[in-house]
Each structure stands twice: as structure tokens, then as C-alpha cells.
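Table 4 source record.
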Amino acid sequence: MREMGFKYDPSTAGSSVRFDPPDPRDTPITFHRPHPDSTLYPVMLKDFGKRLKRTYGWSEEDFYKAAR
């Protein structure tokens, strides 16, 4: 998320992780850190992807562009 220009907000409670978008007019997004095991399983990644698409209209191609 940082590579996409988001800022990590460590002040959230519990296992929540909030990311603030580069444009302050956009909605921040919150994910829950997996616990007790920190493994991100494919089903979780699919859910994260769906939420990012719904919230920001992102697609897989957007991540490929950011990785270059």
C-alpha cells in the first residue's frame, strides 16, 4: 500500500491496520491483521483485492504498474 502512495496509520486499535490514501478526499481503508498466525492466505488476499476494487476501482493491472 505504501508503494501506491498510502500512509500507514498505526493508531488503530487491536489487529486493525489503516491506510490513508494520497488524496485526503478519498476514503481510508482498514484491514485486519491475521492472528495468531501472520500468514496471509489466498482467500484473504482475494478479499483484500475485492475491497480495494470496490473502494478505489483498482484492478490487478494497477498493482503490476506500481511494481514496475
